[in-house]
């Protein structure tokens, strides 16, 4: 490898810098990819995920014989900023757009972009109107879902296993998305089989969440389920803190909540979703159509348990649950 090529590849390993360039032949075609992330740029899990995306994209660009520039846009959990950045990306007309999450995907698709779109971290792309079907997306968008809806019922069962005395569960969900409604419906249908009464808490703003959790916690034997949505990321620290304050066992949909002090999580690997996204982007840049690439769900879900939090709640984690865990935080 020539020295100039080596320096170019070495310098491209840092995530979220503009521009990021892979490969080195001046005669090769430059490909541009715009990425829209609806959260803060300092969000640790997304930083790891985007770094993985950059790494895989560079490797694939080198193997495919093209150069790549990646434009990262971080919306800081601000819906107005999401819309502005979506408009910016469409106006720039990159060769492909990468979107993470329902809260960014919906505003982008309302703009009717005419370039390929690859999404990840989306709950229900069919109900959201992003694709015609999972097997045959049918348009210019395809990608990766967070999970299948049946997973929401598993959250309730796992919470009951770690806290057998549980009788009431408050589901924290975003009512403005099809995914929030769908996850709640599955939990409600599962609840009778495990003897749980279901309550609902909205995620509109911090004050509403604080008041609702405080009111719910006045009665005993309660727990929390945090469903997947952009507001759940925005209010992550608040919800984890409230669960600890009111001694409420809580289950989350992603590892980062447990790493931040939550009790347990069962869900997808965000970093792997971004790696897989890079694979789809590469295939599209090499000529495949999004309409021909099926939307994929995760093939593996991770169970993560925080033993320190369990001890603080006075819970003895069943050995069978510990044996199933992919990670135990002590």
Task: Explain what the structure shows.
The chain is of the alpha/beta class and 330 residues long. The chain has two domains: 3-145 and 270-292, Rossmann fold (3-Layer(aba) Sandwich), CATH 3.40.50; 150-267 and 301-329, Rossmann fold (3-Layer(aba) Sandwich). The chain contains 13 helices and twelve strands. Helix 4 links the parallel strand 3 (96-100) and strand 4. Helix 5 packs across helix 6 (178-190). The relative contact order is 0.13.
Summarize the structure.
With 330 residues, this protein is of the alpha/beta class. Helices cover 42% and strands 19% of the residues.
Characteristics:
single chain; about 325 residues; alpha/beta; Rossmann fold; 7-stranded mixed β-sheet; 13 helices; 12 strands; about 40% helix; disordered N terminus
List the helices and strands and how they pair.
Layout: H1 3-11, E1 30-37, H2 44-64, E2 67-74, H3 79-92, E3 96-100, H4 102-110, E4 117-122, E5 141-145, H5 150-162, E6 168-173, H6 178-190, E7 197-202, H7 206-216, E8 222-226, H8 230-234, H9 236-245, E9 250-252, H10 255-259, E10 264-267, H11 270-285, E11 302-306, H12 307-312, H13 319-324, E12 327-329
Parallel strand pairs: 1-2, 1-3, 3-4, 4-5, 6-7, 6-8, 8-9, 9-10, 11-12
Antiparallel strand pairs: 10-11
